[in-house]
Write a structure and sequence with these properties.
This protein is an alpha+beta fold. The chain contains 13 helices and 18 strands.
Length: about 450
C-alpha cells in the first residue's frame, strides 16, 4: 500500500507537469497556425496505452512515464522523422514560421511551468500560510547525532546564527541549505551560557551533502518527556504513570529529555525498568514496568507547551509576491547547486536522482500540502532543466533559433538533426546513470 501511494502521487504530479508543459508548446503552435500531429502524455515507443484522433492531432497516453511530447510538423525533434523534411516547406510547418514565432513555441512549455510553479506557491501561502517552530522557543537547546557532532554541534547548544544569518526557524533544512548551498562556514551557538563561533570544515559540509545523509537528524530539540495520556494495557499503565508525569530517570540512567528516554527504551526491550518520575513538578516517585519487545512505553507526550509554532496567514495580495519570492529562491538554490557540481564542491552522485528519488520525496502518506509544494518545485525545476542549452531539450532548440535571429543564418537541418541526436544520447545516458544510482542506493 505504501508503494502504491508513492506511485499514485508521482504519476499524478508528473501528469500535471507534463500535460501543462506540452500544452504550452501545443497552444503556442496552434496560435501561430503550426500543425500539431501528436500530443502525448508519457512516451510511447512501439505502442500506446490509449490514443484517439481529433482533427489533425492524435492524442494519447504512452507506457513510459519519463515525460511526454508534442510532435509539430516540420520540426526536428526526438522522433527523428526525416521524411517530413524531404518535401517542399508547407505553411503549416514549424520550419516555415518566422524565427520569433518558433522561439515562442519552444519557450511555451517552459513559460507554462514557471507560471504553474509560481501559481501553486501563491495558493499555498494564501490558503495555508506558513508555519514553523521558532528557534527562540527551544529553551533547553539541542541534542545531536553523529553528523551534528561532526560539524561541531554539541548537546545543549542553542543555535543562534548560521553564517551571518540569524537562525530564526528551528529547521535542520535551514542549516543544511546555508552550509551546503549558500557557502556559510560558521555556526554561532550559545554553549554553557557563552557565545561561541564554530568553524565548519569543508569535509563536514561535503558529508552533509551526501545522499546517504539526507535523512540524518543532525540535531533536534531537547524536550522534557512529559506524559500527556497513558494508553490502556501498556507498560506505562502497569507502572502507574499518570498524565503530567515527567520521566527523569530509568534504572540508574538520568533521562531528562525525550531523546534520552527513547534511546534507553530501545535498549530496554523485554526488560524490567525502574522509572523515576516527577509528579506535579514536586514529588519524585519510583515506578517499575516491563518493556515489551517493541520498546514502546505506551504514552503520548506533551509537545505544545515546550515549543512555539509560529503560523502566519496571508491575504491573496500578500501571497502573490511571496509566491514569486519562493519560486526565485528555489531556482536560485538550484543554480547554486549546479554551479557547485561543476566546480566539484558537490558530487553529482550525491545530487542526482531518478524517478525513484522523486517518489521518496512524496512519502508513503498522501499529504496534499506536501504534494502541491513538491509539484510546484518540480515545475520550476522542469522549466530550468528544459532551458539548458542541450540539443534535444527546449533550450537546445532555443539556442539555434537565437543564433538565427542574431546572425540571420539558419542552422542546416543536418546540423540540428545530429546535434539533437547527440543531445538525446546524452540525456538518455544521464537518465540511466541517475536510475542506476537510485538502484544502488536501495542496497545501501
Amino acid at each position: 500500500m505504501d508503494t502504491l501511494i508513492i506511485v499514485l502521487q508521482v504519476m499524478l504530479s508528473l501528469s500535471i507537469l507534463v500535460i501543462l508543459h506540452e500544452g504550452g508548446h501545443f497552444m503556442t503552435a496552434k496560435w501561430f497556425k503550426a500543425r500539431v500531429e501528436k500530443f502525448y502524455l508519457f512516451f510511447n515507443p512501439w505502442f500506446s496505452l490509449f490514443k484517439f484522433k481529433k482533427g489533425e492531432t492524435e492524442y494519447g497516453i504512452g507506457w513510459l512515464p519519463l515525460g511526454g511530447y508534442v510532435k509539430i510538423s516540420g520540426m526536428i525533434d526526438e522522433s527523428f522523422d526525416k521524411e517530413q523534411l524531404q518535401g517542399e516547406v508547407q505553411p503549416w510547418e514549424f520550419r516555415s514560421k518566422p524565427a520569433w514565432q518558433r522561439l515562442i513555441i519552444m519557450l511555451g512549455g517552459i513559460i507554462v511551468n514557471v507560471i504553474l510553479g509560481i501559481t501553486i506557491f501563491i495558493f499555498i501561502f494564501w490558503l495555508n500560510g506558513s508555519s514553523y517552530v521558532t528557534n527562540e522557543s527551544i529553551k533547553d537547546g539541542i541534542y545531536v547525532d553523529s553528523l551534528g557532532y561532526q560539524i561541531g554541534l554539541r548537546d545543549g547548544d542553542k543555535i543562534m546564527k548560521v553564517g551571518e544569518a540569524d537562525f530564526i526557524k528551528f529547521d535542520k533544512g535551514e542549516l543544511v541549505r546555508a552550509l551546503v548551498i549558500d557557502g556559510a562556514s560558521t555556526i554561532t551557538v550559545e554553549r554553557s551560557g557563552k557565545e561561541q563561533v564554530l568553524q565548519v570544515e569543508t569535509s563536514s559540509v561535503q558529508e552533509l551533502s551526501k545522499y546517504k545523509n539526507r535523512k540524518s537528524e543532525i540535531f533536534g530539540p531537547r524536550l522534557p518527556f512529559v506524559i500527556n495520556e497513558v494508553a490502556k494495557n501498556t507498560p506505562a499503565e502497569e507502572a502507574g504513570m499518570q498524565a503530567g508525569d515527567r520521566v527523569i530517570g530509568m534504572d540508574s540512567i538520568q533521562t531528562l529529555f525525550t531523546h534520552e528516554v527513547l534511546k534507553t527504551l530501545d535498549l530496554a526491550k523485554n526488560k524490567r525498568v525502574d522509572f523515576t518520575v516527577l509528579r506535579a513538578d514536586t514529588d519524585t516517585i519510583k515506578l517499575a514496568a516491563t518493556i515489551g519487545e517493541d520498546g514502546i512505553l505506551g504514552v503520548t507526550r506533551e509537545f505544545e507547551k515546550f515549543i512555539q509554532l509560529e503560523t502566519e496567514k496571508y491575504s491573496f495580495l500578500e501571497a502573490v509576491p511571496l509566491g514569486f519570492k519562493e519560486s526565485y529562491t528555489f531556482l536560485a538554490d538550484q543554480l547554486k547547486a549546479f554551479g557547485k557540481m561543476f566546480t566539484g564542491e558537490l558530487k553529482a552522485k550525491d545530487s542526482l536522482g531518478s524517478i525513484i528519488s522523486i517518489g521518496k520525496m512524496f512519502g508513503t502518506e498522501w499529504d496534499w500540502l506536501r504534494f502541491w509544494n513538491l509539484t510546484a518545485m518540480l515545475s520550476i525545476l522542469l522549466a530550468f532543466l528544459n532551458l539548458l542549452p542541450i540539443p534535444g531539450l527546449d533550450g537546445g532548440h532555443v539556442v539555434f533559433v537565437i543564433w538565427e535571429m542574431i546572425t540571420g543564418k539558419k542552422a542546416s537541418d543536418k546540423v540540428v538533426e545530429y546535434a539533437t541526436l547527440v543531445g538525446f544520447i546524452l540525456l538518455v545516458g544521464l537518465m540511466i546513470f541517475a536510475f542506476g544510482l537510485d538502484i544502488l542506493r536501495l542496497f545501501e
